Amino acid sequence: MLVIVTIDGVAASGKSSVAARVAQQLNLPFVSSGLLYRAVARLALKHDVPTQDQEALLRLLDSHALELRPYAQGNEVWCEGEDLTHELHTAEVDAAVSRVAQHSQLRAWVNEQLRALPEPFVVEGRDMGTAVFPQASVKFYLTASARVRAERRAGERTGDVDAVEAALRERDRHDAAQSRPAPDALLLDTSNLSLDEVVSCILKAVPA
Ligand SMILES: Nc1ncnc2c1ncn2[C@@H]1O[C@H](COP(=O)(O)OP(=O)(O)O)[C@@H](O)[C@H]1O
Ligand SMILES: Nc1ccn([C@H]2C[C@H](O)[C@@H](COP(=O)(O)OP(=O)(O)O)O2)c(=O)n1
Questions:
Q1: Is 14 within any annotated ligand binding site?
Q2: How many domains, in total, are found in the chain?
Q3: Residue 14's domain spans which residues?
Q4: Do the bridges between strand 121-125 and strand 4-9 make them parallel or antiparallel, or are there none, so unpaired?
Q5: Quick one: which ligand is closest to 51's CA?
Q6: What CATH number should be reported for the domain holding residue 30?
Q7: Which ligand is located closest to the Cα atom of residue 126?
Q8: Largest alpha-carbon pair distance within the chain?
């Protein structure tokens, strides 16, 4: 049976860490959909393309082939022989990516890349269980308080917790349109759960 596990949720709720561990336990690849939005934002910054200009962003994608490579040990995004992965988790990209993710044709392009990947896999993002893989057998939606998420993220980025929390709240607002639990998703508040606890909760819901 093909199993697609979708793990959606707000920024820094634990989606990618959890998806990587769940996938490892199931011996499946995992897919980080946000990396494609991040890669488009990175290309736009690099080539001075305004992130509000959808047509220009789509032209950029025509002239720069982006490829998501979902390896079991971590996802990579390549652009014409260059590995962009290490450039995608910066405060600059964080600040630009929500604007990129608001364009419907660009979202359609991302979704096409995701649906072309060989199943089965574990996939994480914002709308995996709703718009992209509504047929998935197991769906989760992760949340956590903004403070807890900021404390977690401040450990990975520079910046104090208050500034990180303000930036996360801002991004939550911009991403709200596409960040919704599917009607059949299980909601999990990870504020007071360890990574292991979240992973084991998800694995319990996966059919043997
Ligand atoms: N339940 C948890 N308990 C403690 N730390 C966590 C938990 N979930 C995630 N983290 C940590 O929080 C940070 C953000 O998690 P990440 O998986 O990148 O979130 P997302 O993919 O939702 O943005 C990482 O440093 C991760 O290790
Ligand atoms: N399926 C998705 C995945 C990400 N996005 C948007 C929303 C986020 O602001 C960016 C980056 O997503 P990513 O999951 O990498 O970001 P976080 O780790 O949650 O901070 O892309 C989206 O709109 N739809």
A1: yes
A2: 1
A3: 4-205
A4: parallel
A5: 2
A6: 3.40.50.300
A7: 2
A8: 49
